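JOB MANIFEST
job_type = single_chain_structure
chain_count = 1
residues = 381
[input]
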Amino acid sequence: MSERQTALHGAHQELGARFTDFGGWSMPVRYESDTAEHHAVRRGAGIFDLSHMGEVEVTGPQAGAFLDHALVGVLSTIGVGRAKYSVIVDEHARVLDDLITYRLAEDRYLVVPNAGNQETVVAALQDRAQGFDVRVTDRGPETSLVAVQGPRALEVLEATGLAPAADVSALKYYACTTARCGGVDVLVARTGYTGEDGFELYCANEAARTLWDALLATAGELGTPEAPVTAAGLAARDSLRLEAGMPLYGHELSTGITPVEAGLGKLVEIALRKKDEAGTRTVGHDALAAMLQEAPARTLIGLEGVGRKPVRAGYTVLAGDRPVGEVTSGLPSPTLGKPVAMALVATDALEEIAAGNVSIQDARGRGVEVVQTGMPFYKRG
């Protein structure tokens, strides 16, 4: 039994959710059907409880300079009300987590790590804050996060009495603002992890149930068979993010996978160039710079199944008869009707793989026919 429960655990029980342990939290994996919840997000809207995610507030006159030092990325130059994706690494350039950072005011930021890495990120930020005029505060225990994702996401928010609706509808991707939704004060961000338009809403734990109920009430008002609105669990979230080619820590990112191998070389290159120009340095700066000078030993690629045999994480990738890598994430794609996977493979095998001499070996040693494809596997519109 997981030790932690979100403020919405009771609401999920009432909906008949099935639970799973995720990062030490008891989280709804599904309510009725993974596939139905997945399609709801692609066609209408899905409502997710993401309160297991971390929230770390960084405040003070040197908040921007501190985050430039602590994270891979230049956070001091993003505008108030904007957000940026980045990673945090150790001094050897090993990835501790990937995260999103919001600039809420001139000297106030909100860093959002993954659930299983929250304690690691908080500890690293507090340690790296030495010598900077900043305060690092873990807001995770008091904060809930609800996401509304899908082409009808804005309609769902507006149906709850969203105010000011014009400010939220005008939000650009990776931007945020304060608002009231369902009678609750929220920080609304136009971000997500599904490949669809959508919003993530941060609120106090004590207001989470009011917000959740207001959002779920729109299912009966707005939902149709063609464009449903429904609660969605982590199983749908995983298949959605995989179709969108988005990495998951512990699969495509880890301390054993370099940022360059994970496809984040351009992010690192731009960040280091800007920091060199500004005369600033990030933790792991030298190791990251050295990493950019060499071709990565492994490369993250996309694969599609030719038939319907499933492709799962941990399966071996073969170039000819030679094992050259491993599937990091793999699932049947509800949208595409075929298996899709991300795999980390030897860079020196890329030419052979591109030529079509590639297959998958499952856990029982049976072959699965696949072809290499670009990512993301799915793009909205």
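[summary]
The mean pLDDT is 96.
Residues 297-381 form a domain with the Elongation Factor Tu (Ef-tu); domain 3 fold (CATH 2.40.30.110).
exit_status = 0
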